[in-house]
Amino acid sequence: MTTPHKFVLANRLSRLKPSPTLQLAARSREMKEQGIDILDFSGGEPDFRTPDDISEVAIQAIRDGFTKYTAVGGILELKNAIVNKFQRDQNLSYTSKDIVVSCGAKHSLFQIFQALVNPGDHVLLPTPAWVSYPDQIFLNGGEPIFIPCREADGFRLNPDALEAAITPRSKILILNSPNNPTGAVIGKKEIERIGEIVLKHGLTVISDEIYEKIAFDGHQPISIASLDKELKDSTIIVNGVSKTYSMTGWRIGYAAGPREIITAVDNIQSQTTSNPTSISQKAAAYAIASGDKDFRPMLEAYTQRRFRIVSMLNEVPGISCPMPDGAFYVFPNISGLLGRSYRGHPLLNVFELAEFFLDVARVTLVPGAPFGNDHHMRMSFAASLNVLETGAHRIKEAVSRLD
Ligand SMILES: Cc1ncc(COP(=O)(O)O)c(C=O)c1O
What we know:
Elements lengths: L21 H12 L5 E2 L11 H12 L12 H15 L8 E4 L2 H12 L5 E6 L4 H8 L3 E6 L10 H7 L4 E7 L11 H14 L2 E5 L20 H4 L2 E6 L12 E4 L2 H12 L7 H12 L5 H20 L14 E2 L10 E2 L2 E2 L3 H12 L1 E2 L1 E2 L9 E4 L4 H15 L4
Parallel strand pairs: 1-12, 3-4, 3-5, 5-6, 6-7
Antiparallel strand pairs: 2-8, 7-8, 9-14, 10-11, 13-14
Helix pairs in contact: 2-10, 3-10, 4-5, 4-9, 11-13, 12-13
C-alpha cells in the first residue's frame, strides 16, 4: 500500500483563520434543512430582486452573442458609465484609463492589496470593520493595525486616534463609509482632518464606497478623493453594483485611482481571472448609466425598516441599539445580556449569545467579535418589515427567558 500524499500548504495561509462564524452558519443551515423556521439576519446582501430592466439587458447580451472574452479591465461602455457616475454623483473627474472593473469589489480590493502591500507593511484599519479586510491583508503579507472607533463617537474614526496609530511602517489607510457593520458615515469635518493626516504622513487611502448610496437622514458620504487633487492622487476608490442595484451575484466591482495602480491591477487581473463576466458587464453598464431610478424605492424601504427595527430592539431589556447613518445593518450593544443565564448556563460572550438566539429565538445574528467588537451583534435589515418584526419579537421573547 502506498502512503497517502502529504500536502504542505503555503506559509501565507498560516494566518488565515477559518471564519469564527462558520460553525454558527453551518448550524443555522442544518436547522433550516431540518425544516426549522429560522429567520436569517446574517447576510450581507439586499433582499430585493435585481430590477427586471437590468436583467433584460443581460438576456439581450446573451441573445446578441456577447459571450466572449472582453478587455481584461472591462468594456469601454461600462468604464464610461462609471466615469460619468463619478462626475454626476461625486464631482470626481476620471477617464476610462483610470478605471479597472473586476469580479466584485472584494476582488478589486484583493488585487489592490496585491499591487501595494509588501511583507510587513502596516495597513491602518478602523474597527469595527468588514471581516474580509484583515484576511486579505494577511494573504498579501501585510499587517493590519486596528484603530478602534468608539460607540460614543458614533463609531466614526477619531482623527487623533488615527494619527496616534501611524508609524514609519504605515502605508495604507482603509476607509469604509458608510461602514459595514456599524453604518457610520464619516462627517465633513472629520474627513477633512483625516485628509490632512493622510497627506502629512504620505499614506495611500483605499476608500471602500460600496454602501455609498445607502445613507439616511441627510447623512451624505463624502469621498476623501473629492476633497482636493492631492488627496485624489493618494486614493483608490472601490465601489460596485452589488449593494446599490441588488446585483450581488453578478460579480461586478471596480476601482478608480492613479494610473500606475490601475495598470498594476489590470496586469494582475490579466494573469488571474481575465475579464469579469461579459454579460454582467453589459447589465452593470446599463444599471450605472440609469442612475438611481431603480434604487430609490429600495432606499425608501430601508429607511422604514431601519426605524422599525431600531425601535423594536430598543424595547428589549439589555439591548441598546444605535440608529445607523447608512448601510443596511444595525449593530446593537448586547453587553446588558452577557453574564445572564439560560437554564443554568451563563452566556459569557457574544458567540454564546449568538448560539442562544439561534437555538431559542430561531434567528441568526452575527457576533460582533470578528468585526473587532465583542459587545455588539450585527443584524441585517435587508428583509421585509414583517420578517424583521417577527425576528424582533422572537429576540424579545427569548431574552425574557434569561435569568
Ligand atoms: C464593506 C464591504 N466591501 C466590499 C464588499 C464586497 O462587495 P462585492 O459583492 O462587490 O464583492 C462587501 C460585501 O459585503 C462589503 O460589506
